[in-house]
Design brief:
Elements (H helix, E strand, L loop, with lengths): L4 E7 L3 H11 L6 E4 L16 H4 L9 E2 L12 E2 L21 H9 L7 H11 E2 L14 E2 L8 H12 L15 E4 L4 E2 L2 E2 L2 H9 L5 E4 L3 E8 L2 E9 L2 E13 L2 H11 L2 E2 L1 H6 L6 E2 L5 E3 L3 E9 L5 H5 L2 H14 L9 E7 L10 E6 L15 E8 L6 E4 L10 E3 L6 H18 L8 E6 L7 H11 L1 E2 L29 E3 L14 H19 L2
Parallel strand pairs: 1-2, 1-13, 2-10, 5-6, 13-25, 14-15
Antiparallel strand pairs: 3-4, 7-18, 8-9, 11-12, 12-13, 16-21, 17-20, 17-23, 17-24, 18-19, 19-20, 21-22
Helix pairs in contact: 1-6, 1-13, 4-13, 11-12
Length: 534
Amino acid sequence: MALATADYVIVGAGSAGCALAHRLSADGRHAVLLLEAGPRDVYPWLHIPIGYAQTMFNPRVNWCFYTDPEPGMHGRRIYWPRGKTLGGSSAINGLIAIRGQAEDYDAWAAAGNAGWSYREVLPYFKRLEHVPGGDPAFRGRGGPIWCSPIGRKHALVEAVIAGCAELGLARNDDFNAAVQEGAGYYQLTTKHGWRCSTASAYLKPARRHRNLRVETEARVTRVLFAGRRATGVVYRQDGVERCVTARREVLLCAGAVQTPQLLQLSGVGPPALLAEFGIPLLQALPGVGENLQDHLQARVIFECTRPITTNDDLHSPWRMLRMGLDYLFTRGGPMAVGINQGGIFARVDPEARRPDVQFHLATLSSDMAGSPPHAFSGFTLSVCQLRPEARGFVRIRSADPLQPPVMQPNYLSAEADRRTLVAGIKLARRLATTRALAPYVKAEYRPGPEANSDAALLEFARATGGTIFHPSGTCKMGSDALAVVDPALRVHGLEGLRVVDCSVMPTLTSGNTNLPVIMIAEKAADLILADGAI
């Protein structure tokens, strides 16, 4: 395949881009070029589940973004890790396999996005996954992404599940089946103890496709157009600016931060913003970069009465050796799990008809995700509101494509977000007093007993809260004034250009976003191939 041309040019080899590259190149009819700004995924810690801590702040494989100062978070700049390697964020994330709720997708369809109801996207969820022993009415078998159960039970997780039962939340062995509500163990995107990123699940087998070419450390800086048709992209690699022509389509899979940035740099977006930086306007789309949504987490941390936490493992040379040997010989134990083992989906609003908060239970504690563990035995109940009402934006701050854009999520700017997060923290506290969990709780480390009012709990969230890594919605699908793409993910007003990543979500899904993004790519592949057959 000539480097200068391809049928499909995919920008970004992340959760969506790798899946799309596999599906579009599978039948051998189309030349596909996949461009990734980061390096190949050869760093060993990308593949070991507990390596999450080694990649969280590693600029070689992580964009290490920061938001602009957040008014609702005491002016703090919130750290936003995003994957910068083959597999993208699926190569550095917390491995949790969650689809969201059926109502999320039905709401997308009800907003005018035909084809995106839960009934219509369910086949794509099933196609992408392999779930041993899953209910075949809801779960798939034989797909590229393994959604593996956690093989060993942990006393803390069992205590949390039992404590939830005391509060009226039943045990749930599969959050992705008929009902999401309840408490249980998460399924992880791991295969035989190794991380199952989209690079390993989709791209590695697709390398056998002779019509697929993958270029790493190739940073796309703008989309090229002939009239209103996208004809290719410009990218930088090895210090050289290169161009590639797309005979059929350019497919943007760069994520909720960099896809809108790339569109704006290419003359597609809010006219006033582009004019501010001297970028000629090609297509006025005021919604490019708007509608930003993210899950904000508040980390409630407890000191544990027993030395059974991962903190204890990591502070003991003997236990670390045992943990390493366990992984080496059995591919099991803490190294095969990563960070969060248990989950809770609950309703804290008395009027809620479905879960409105999610908990991630980690059998360790630290000041922030990926930072060194505390010296004491500790565990964390991290809570987030599932469907935030706050809306932010991503906007270029200059015409320089190498400068990160403005990222302003506007956390806690909506009253419902503040109320729900405080209620979630209070639920964590009630859980800690249950008969099942109380014997494991030595003390509440954060927010601490001095936080004894709703105002104090909100202050705790503002002072310590952070992202749980799900920015979405900045190129939303729809037909309203802020919509950027149509239900076939084609950019409004242009030809030969689609967006295929989490930025097309009109509203954030109720849970972790990796599986929904892969589903979007699976469905997009069918849409693209169907158009290409005409």
